Amino acid sequence: MIKVKKSNGELEEFSKEKLEKSLRNAGANDQLIDEIIKDINSWMIDGVTTKKIYKAAFRHLYRRQDHSSLRYKLKQAIMELGPTGHPFETFIGKVLEKQGYDTEVALVIDGYCVTHEVDVIATKDNEQYIVECKYGQSSDKSVSVQVPLYVHSRVNDIIRKREKMKEFDGYVFHGMVATNTRFTHDSMTFAKCSGLYLLGWDYPEGNGLKDIIDRERIYPITILHSLTKSQKELLFNNGIVSCDQIIESPHVLDQLELSILKTDKIQQEIRSICNFSG
Hints:
The chain is of the alpha/beta class. Helix content is 46%, strand content 18%.
């Protein structure tokens, strides 16, 4: 079996099934998937990086001018929600809203001992999540155990305060760490032991960030070819981070001073991505 190099430098056996699943989730049909895999098999050698395989697969999709190519580049699009990390916090808020939570982003709230800056608070019924977002610009990075240790301590201070406040009578509180990368083994072990919730790129298995994004059709605006980098940054500055926000409120594009033709092109691209059924 061919060994491929992962982003963290580790070697693992190439999995045709993983590549097929990734392409199918992006919307590629069986014929295109077979073509891509045959091409990759023709030049793949021991030690080839998964990044090179990804780029090759994306080139195939893009040549077909298939919007599945955009969805396939989802991971990179999430990495582009920077460099400050604030757009990622807003995006996590939108992801939690899709799960039925009312959300607030970028707050300063009182704890029992000190005040805290909180990235996201998500509330549904009498259940509240206090969320710390850890944005990474490289998929090679993993969230170390120091982060959940630190977040657990802060969350406990906030909970200790809120449990004494009348407006939170009967509430159940949870802490959460959300990242666009991965968690170390120690991070996951501590979280399970302490009751802290983790949301990573592919964690928990089957319900990680990439799974929720695809299931809920909540794609970041960085996935769009029809917007320039500066246009995306302008939208970021006005709290617009997801494609569905543009569909729900088309007037948010007015600030970009685009032609009617350009505006229509953006909306068509978004509908093609978000309404794709596959």
